[in-house]
Design brief:
α2 packs parallel to α4, α5 runs antiparallel to α6 and α6 packs across α9. The strands form 4 sheets. The protein has a 7-stranded antiparallel sheet. Strands 12-11-10-13-14 form a 5-stranded mixed sheet, sandwiched between helices. A two-stranded antiparallel ribbon has the order 2-3. β15 and β16 form a beta hairpin. It is globular. With 437 residues, it is an alpha+beta fold.
């Protein structure tokens, strides 16, 4: 291909990509998780698909070992690389994976390096280099129709075969997958990722579907405040409690005891370690499912959800670290913070000590006091009271930031609002005194 033809081809590709991006901008992205049925592959094909992840790790570590000049001049058509074995000896390797996989590893490293450079310029501090990887568990499939394509529903080849299968570059035969029923009929397929997990290999397929308006049947539920805790993980201002704790199974404890008795590095030791990883994956899936269900129950039909910026990471290091570790509080907090209808209150706001009726701070309350009793006569459960206090603080913030003239200053400043404003003024920390030498 001469230079003129190459430029014309690149121009055509660029115009097609612009049209695709414009079309996807008006659609909603959706990620579909499909599990590959590896039983339909023979031994050589099964070894080859696992070898893809090994070769990606070889290539990633090889590129990280190059200097900046050699990294820039690296060509994705190169197949011969050098790597270190477990004893630290240099070994010549030959890559057999498709060229698109090599391009994906190289492009991913370039993005990571640019991100580190941008962070270094922003903070002005040294943030180190990318580290060598002991495993490579995610391969980017960035071109639908080339690196991967699927046939599902009533589709198939000209003979009507290979329904509900996925084709991956480098594997000649189609692979049957589970979970095709999740794909909408009007979905437009895009890039994907091949992900290796202890329970198998998954295809994370990105689809684009048309945006659909709500059906109008959603209830208009009242505003709500939520309080995070240890004993009762989630408590709402309506008095409802959710438990999103999934504790370790007896099987996991047994496998950990078995691993401690085995010889490190033996075949049985590796088999037991793999089973432990599978158990941890099951626990993570259960906790994620609980967090998603609670998130849906809290958010659906509400215009304002108020929560506090709790220090979940600090809770892990405290007295109840085991209980926090077994819960999905961190996952739920991250999902709530990404919702535009959720208002996050400052971490140091005394939601436990402040009375939602009169706004007085009760300084003598302890962790063992499960009932909040104020001098004004207000009495309620400690966690429910904290959630109601957060809701009042959030509504007070919203009322003060509404359009001018909607509410008068007198209407805004209730007893609780005055107490909240007084707390904000007192929360301004003075400058810390210099340490004595």
């Amino acid at each position: 291909m001469d230079e003129k033809a190459r430029k014309a081809k690149n121009k055509t590709i660029g115009e097609s990509m612009k049209k695709t991006l414009l079309r996807h901008a008006s659609m909603r992205p959706l990620t579909i998780e499909l599990k590959l049925d590896l039983k339909c592959l023979n031994r050589s094909e099964l070894n080859r698909i696992y070898l893809f992840f090994v070769e990606c790790r070889w290539l990633c570590n090889y590129l990280l070992s190059l200097d900046s000049e050699a990294f820039r001049s690296f060509g994705t058509e190169e197949r011969n690389i050098t790597s270190l074995d477990k004893d630290g000896n240099t070994v010549e390797r030959s890559l057999t994976m498709p060229a698109k996989f090599i391009q994906a590893v190289y492009t991913s490293l370039k993005k990571d390096m640019k991100t580190l450079a941008a962070k270094r310029e922003k903070t002005g501090k040294k943030n180190g280099r990318l580290r060598f990887r002991s495993s490579y568990d995610s391969i980017e499939l960035n071109q639908y129709g080339n690196t991967h394509w699927i046939l599902y529903g009533s589709e198939g080849d000209k003979n009507g075969r290979y329904k509900n299968t996925v084709h991956v570059a480098g594997i000649k035969r189609p692979i049957r997958v589970f979970g095709m029923d999740q794909i909408p009929q009007d979905a437009e397929f895009a890039n994907a990722k091949l992900v290796k997990r202890p329970s198998g290999i998954y295809l994370m397929l990105i689809c684009y579907i048309p945006k659909r308006n709500g059906n109008g049947n959603e209830e208009n539920k009242p505003n709500i405040g939520i309080d995070f805790g240890i004993k009762t993980t989630i408590t709402t201002s309506e008095g409802e409690a959710f438990d999103i704790t999934v504790r370790e199974s007896e099987r996991l404890r047994g496998l950990q005891k078995k691993l401690s008795r085995q010889i490190k590095g033996s075949r049985g030791w590796y088999d037991t370690k793999h089973l432990i990883r599978r158990e941890y994956e099951k626990l993570a899936n259960k906790r994620r499912a609980k967090a998603n269900q609670v998130y849906h129950d809290i958010v659906t039909g509400r215009k304002l959800i108020v929560m506090q910026d709790e220090n979940i990471r600090g809770w892990h290091k405290g007295l109840f670290g085991k209980q926090v570790q077994n819960s999905a509080l961190g996952t739920l907090k991250r999902k709530l913070q990404s919702n535009p209808n959720v208002l996050v209150i400052d971490r140091f706001f005394p939601s436990t000590k402040m009375c939602p009726r009169c706004g007085v701070l009760k300084e003598d309350i302890t962790l063992s006091d499960r009932i909040f009793a104020c001098g004004c006569g207000y009495t309620e459960d400690r966690d429910v009271k904290a959630a109601k206090t957060l809701l009042l603080a959030g509504e007070h913030i919203r009322s003060c930031t509404c359009l001018e003239g909607t509410r008068t200053p007198v209407e805004r400043m209730s007893d609780f609002g005055a107490s909240y404003e007084a707390w904000k003024r007192s929360a301004l920390k003075p400058e810390a005194p210099s340490s004595k030498r």
